[in-house]
Design a protein that fits this description.
The complex is a heterodimer of chains A (134) and B (162). Chain A has 134 residues and is an alpha+beta fold. Chain A is built from 5 helices and 4 strands. In chain A, β3 and β4 form a beta hairpin. In chain A, α1 packs across α3. With 162 residues, chain B is mostly helical. The longest helix of chain B is centred in the middle third of the chain and has 133 residues. Classes of the chains: A alpha+beta (134), B mainly alpha (162). Chains A and B meet through α4, β3, β4 and α5 of A and α2 and α3 of B.
């Protein structure tokens, strides 16, 4: 039997739960889990949940962004980052996942989808190293 | 006549007999001595003449042979000179060819060596640059660790999104 991808399963669940109340949705999800068990695809549940979450975010126009800094991010800076992402990616809202990484030395590394904005000192030094090696 | 015969006591019969004897002697002499001798002499004359003719012919042949020998020798000398000239010419051409080939080989080797040297030089420069860049970056990193204040950090964040 051909395996169905988690993305397709998530799309199906998303379509099924659309416009449903919380109780109805819970019933739909329960049935969906039963199907996954029957089809022996329960092991893919995490991937399905992740795909479902992305579909929901897409539907709501929310963009996920991964922000990595060497220092804790100030609220003002976080707001500015959100504004930047909304402007650049046309998002209604932004969900920021913040990571601390001291080796970046300073600045910020932003990842939205496949786009990466590297404004870290580490990145600048790497660029400098490349230029010096040319 | 009779007085003359009687005066000199000539006997005609004896004279005739003597004449016959003389004729016989002459005939015998001619037949058995003079004729073979003449024949022999003629033969010897022919032999000598032939010998002389042969000798003359031989002398002529000798002269002709000498001329031919000289001519052949002269031709051989000319041919030898021509061969020597050709050999010398070929040797010169070969020498020039070998010299040219050797010069080309030497040039190619020199070019290859120069190219290798250039490549090695570039490689060394690149390696040195790489090492130097690594050192610069490493040193800068060490200097920057702990020296970037929160203020500078926020400024860098702002720079990244503007």
């Amino acid at each position: 039997m051909q395996k169905i991808s988690p993305k397709i399963l998530a799309s199906a669940l998303h379509a099924a739960t659309k416009g449903q109340t919380a109780t109805e949705s819970a019933q739909t999800v329960k049935s969906f889990v039963n199907i996954l068990v029957k089809k022996r695809m329960i092991g893919k549940s995490e991937e399905v949940i992740e795909a479902y979450r992305k579909l929901t975010l897409d539907e709501k126009g929310i963009v996920e962004a991964e922000v990595t800094t060497s220092h804790p991010l100030a609220n003002e800076a976080e707001e500015n980052i959100k504004k930047f992402i909304k402007k650049e990616f046309g998002a209604k809202d932004v969900e920021i996942h913040h990571k601390l990484e001291e080796s970046l030395l300073g600045g910020m590394k932003l990842k939205v989808g496949d786009t990466i904005v590297d404004g870290t000192l580490k990145g600048r030094l790497t660029q400098l190293q490349r230029e010096l090696t040319k | 006549m009779d007085s003359f015969v009687s005066a000199f006591h000539i006997d005609l019969k004896i004279i005739i007999a003597q004449a016959i004897n003389l004729a016989v002697v002459v005939f015998v002499l001619y037949r058995f001595a003079i004729k073979p001798l003449k024949k022999n002499l003629d033969e010897r004359k022919v032999t000598i003449e032939k010998g002389l003719s042969d000798a003359k012919e031989n002398a002529e042949l000798l002269v002709a042979s000498k001329h031919e020998h000289d001519k052949i020798l002269s031709l051989a000398r000319i041919e030898a000179e021509k061969i020597m000239h050709d050999v010398k010419k070929n040797a010169e051409a070969k020498r020039a060819e070998l010299l040219e080939s050797a010069q080309a080989d030497a040039k190619a080797v020199a070019m290859a060596a120069k190219k290798d040297l250039e490549a090695e030089k570039h490689k060394m420069i690149h390696e040195a640059k790489k090492e130097l860049a690594g050192l610069v970056v490493s040193a800068t990193e060490k200097v920057l660790i702990g020296t970037v204040s929160h203020h500078i950090d926020q400024k860098l964040v702002e720079e990244a999104i503007h």
